């Protein structure tokens, strides 16, 4: 079941991100947007816990449900970011976080308009796109490293079929 969900999510997102230049833009700016978002949400706290901690925990739980190994890697990265935020080790002001957030979205829209030639996934499924984007970036890295070749082939074949149908 979890594997079906993983394939479904990766195919959904990859269908909108099949151009290498657009994927590269997303590989840079999705983590930047996530960092900026967590930095801003870190300001909202109750006791020693921030909203960023809750968001990171929710992403981790979702990703682990989809794939235990990759989800654990994503969770470790998110936990590290949250730890660094609590330790004051992220030299990013709120204003800089807003600028990074806006620039990240701007570059992604350019990537879709100029390179992909297709509207962003969030137009068709906002929640799915926001939930999947960071994990997609991790999976693109794992695939580029030659890991999970059978899954990569399965996802790409499904994406090619979707694109051939004009989706």
From TrEMBL:
InterPro entries this protein is in? Mpo1-like
- The regions listed as transmembrane in this protein's record are 21-42, 62-85, 97-115, 127-148
| Keyword Protein biosynthesis attached | no
Q: Which GO terms describe its biological process?
A: sphingoid catabolic process
Instruction: Name the keywords, alphabetized.
Output: Membrane, Transmembrane, Transmembrane helix
Q: Does the keyword Transferase apply?
A: no
Q: Which GO terms describe its cellular component?
A: endoplasmic reticulum; membrane
Q: What Pfam families does the record tag this protein with?
A: Mpo1-like
Q: What is this protein called?
A: AGR171Cp
């Amino acid at each position: 079941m979890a594997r079906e969900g993983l394939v479904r999510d990766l195919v959904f997102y990859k269908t909108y991100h099949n151009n290498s230049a657009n994927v590269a833009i997303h590989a840079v700016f999705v983590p930047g947007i996530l960092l900026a978002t967590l930095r801003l949400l870190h300001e909202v706290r109750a006791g020693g816990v921030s909203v960023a901690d809750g968001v990171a925990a929710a992403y981790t739980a979702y990703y682990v449900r989809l794939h235990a190994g990759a989800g654990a890697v994503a969770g470790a990265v998110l936990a590290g970011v949250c730890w660094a935020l609590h330790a004051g080790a992220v030299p990013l002001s709120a204003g800089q976080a807003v600028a990074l957030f806006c620039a990240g979205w701007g570059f992604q829209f350019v990537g879709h308009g100029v390179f992909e030639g297709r509207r962003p996934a969030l137009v068709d499924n906002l929640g799915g796109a926001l939930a999947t984007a960071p994990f997609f970036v991790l999976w693109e890295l794992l695939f580029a490293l030659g890991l999970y070749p059978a899954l990569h082939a399965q996802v790409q074949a499904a994406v090619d079929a979707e694109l051939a149908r004009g989706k």
